[in-house]
Structure formats: C-alpha cells, structure tokens
Amino acid sequence: MTSDTVRAAPRTPSGPVPGTVHPTPRPPLLRRLGDLPVAVLFVLPAAVGFALFYLWPAIRGAYLSLTRYNVLTPARFIGLENYEKLFGDRLFWNALKVTAEYVVLNIVSQTVISMLLAVLLYRLTKSMLVRGIVLLPYLVANVIVALVWFWMLDFQLGVVNNIIEWLGFDRVAFFGSDLAIPTIAGINTWRHMGYTALLIFAGLQMIPPSVYEAAAIDGASEWRTFWRVTLPLLRPVMALVMVLSVIGSFQVFDTIAVTTAGGPINATRVIYFYIYDLAFNRFNFGYAAALSSVLFVLLAGIAYLQLRLSRAGESDLRGA
Fold first, then answer.
1. For residue 261, how many other CB atoms are within 10 A of its CB?
2. Which residues pair with 125 in a beta bridge?
3. 181 and 259 in contact (C-beta within 8 Å)?
4. Count of CB atoms within 10 A of residue 82's CB?
5. What does the alpha-carbon distance between residue 158 and residue 209 come to, in Å, rounded to a whole number?
6. Cα 118 from Cα 9, distance rounded (Å)
7. Long-range pairs for 42-51: beta carbons < 8 A, 24 or more residues apart
8. d(Cα 180, Cα 268) in Å, to the nearest integer?
9. How distant, in Å, are the alpha carbons of 110, 274, 291, 312 from that of 305?
10. Do 245 and 107 contact (CB within 8 A), yes or no?
C-alpha cells in the first residue's frame, strides 16, 4: 500500500454535521426504572404477608358476616340478617359500653403517666440503662404480666391485699364487678407506659433547643413553657400515640381472658372477648364476623377523626 492510497481513504466526520438532527439515544430499561425494582423486591415479602394474613381474612370475614356459618356446615347466605340482629343484642351494647369505659381509663392514665415519664427522661437523664428499664414491662408477654398481677391482686392470697390488711384496711376485691375494668386498665397502663413514653421522648428530642432559649429570654416559666411550647410542638407525635393507643385499647383481649374471662356478670366482657366467645365457643362465625366488621368501621372512623382533628400531618416547627 502506497502513501497515495492512504491519503485517498474517506474521512469520518468527528462532530455533528450542521443542519442535521440526531435522535437522543434511549437509556437501558433498568436505568429508566431507577430504584423501582429494588424497592419492589424489598416491599414484596411484606406485601405478600399483608395480602395473606390481613387482606384476604378481611375480605373473607366481610363475606362471612353475610352468612350463617358454624364451621361444620357450608356457609349459607342470609344477607344483612346478622347486622339487623346486633341492634337488639344487649350483650353487644354492654360490650361496647364496657370497652368504651376501658378505653377512656386506659388512654387517660397511660397518656398522663407516659408524658410525665418522657419529660423526666428528657430533662434528668440520657442514660440508655434507664431507658431500657422503662421499656422493660413492654418486653414481657402480656399473658405473663396479666398472670403476675392476677396473683398479686388476689383477694385471699395476693401480696397487695396482705399489705393493705397489714396497714389496717379492709381487703379489696380488685377483680370484683366494680373495680375489674379500672384494675385491668391499670395493668395494661403499667405494661405500655414505657413504650409510649419512649415515643413521646423521641418527639421531645425533635424540638430545637432554640425554641426553649427564646421562651426563657421572654421570661416564661417551666409550666408555661410546657403548655405553650412543648405540648403544641409535640402534636404530630401525640396524634400518632393517641391513634395507636386507642386502636390498641379497643383490642384488649389477653389480659381479660387470663384474669376475669369476661366476668363477673359481663362486667369485663369487652367487644373483642365477645367476638371470640361467639366464634370459638358458640361457633357462630357469621354473627362474630358481622361484629368484627362493625368494629373495623368504628375504629377506622375514630382514627380518621383523630387524625383530622389533631392535624397530624402538619407541624408548627416549619416556621421555627
């Protein structure tokens, strides 16, 4: 090959030719999807579990609420008969009343004590050991907690009644008809107050110190700072705590099953225990499913109202 041959070879233009439009190359499919495949991979196990253990049972329960079903025979469609029946069911209304009494007692005592604990933790100590001790009751199984308190508060042999008698007072029937619900609310408050206190404690840590410094410069007292600064800024956290606490309180079951089993004379027959009794003791699954559906709608409505009234999605820290 001569130098003339090399000189005659056509040259490829190195840049775009003026006046021509070149299409933009499309990125590969995986690049266009971004993090979506990885996100789907992580969410998939939880989604499958939700579909199997929550969504499908809820759909199945909604269907059974329209049937007469006792496990031994096929379900027979009866329309809204189960829902009409609950309007005249005195045990259902009594269960709702007992549940409401328990929810009010439990929420008030748990919120007040947890708030006090959280403020003390925030102001006095940052020790992880102390936080662990506060959380300890929540780590014990609810059945164990209920059994221990049931023995401690026993009328004849309980250590609490022995101390009360030693102090010169009469023994107290903690699980009698008058005190059973307040006693059960107290047991569950003792178990959950540490967990709730840590949620509020996390909210306290999100409040910037500059807000407290400004309040101190303005001469605000500790009490006034708590009501005018701390509590309003804790509103989103408190909204979450209240929603979780109310839903959890409506679901009280194991403490009552271990201690009073709904007695004495239906004094502690809450709605969850009544549904369990209908389904697994009387095999009236259709009616129990109807009560479960009503409870679901009731809790959804209460949670929605709580979130709207407390403006849970808004924070007063935006302008701070």
1. 12
2. none
3. no
4. 23
5. 48
6. 83
7. none
8. 7
9. 20, 26, 21, 11
10. yes
Question: What is the pLDDT confidence band of residue 11, given thresholds at 50, 70 and 90?
Answer: low
Q: How far is the C-alpha of 13 from the C-alpha of 15, rounded, in Å?
A: 6
Give the C-alpha separation, 263 to 178, whole Å: 11
Distance CA 236, CA 315 (A): 7
Sorted by sequence, the CB contacts under 8 Å of residue 261 that are 6+ apart come out as 273
**Cβ proximity of 151 and 158 under 8 Å:** yes
**What string of DSSP letters covers 26-64?**
PPPHHHHHTTHHHHHHHHHHHHHHHIIIIIHHHHHHHHH
Q: How many CA atoms lie within 13 A of 314 on its CB side?
A: 8
**Tell me: the pLDDT tens digits for 93-150?**
999 999 999 999 999 999 999 999 998 888 887 788 888 888 889 999 999 999 999 9
Q: Name residue, tokens 């709702």.
A: 96
Give dist(CA 103, CA 91) in Å, integer. Answer: 18
Q: How many angstroms separate the CA atoms of 110 and 107, rounded?
A: 5
**pTM higher than the cut 0.85:** no
The terminus-to-terminus CA distance of the chain in angstroms comes to 80
Tell me which of 16-30, 103-117, 240-254 is least confident.
Answer: 16-30
Q: Are 306 and 243 in contact (CB under 8 A)?
A: yes
Long-range interactions of 182-185: CB distance < 8 A, separation 24+: 182/105, 183/153, 184/102, 184/252, 184/255, 184/256, 184/259, 184/260, 184/268, 185/102, 185/105, 185/106, 185/109
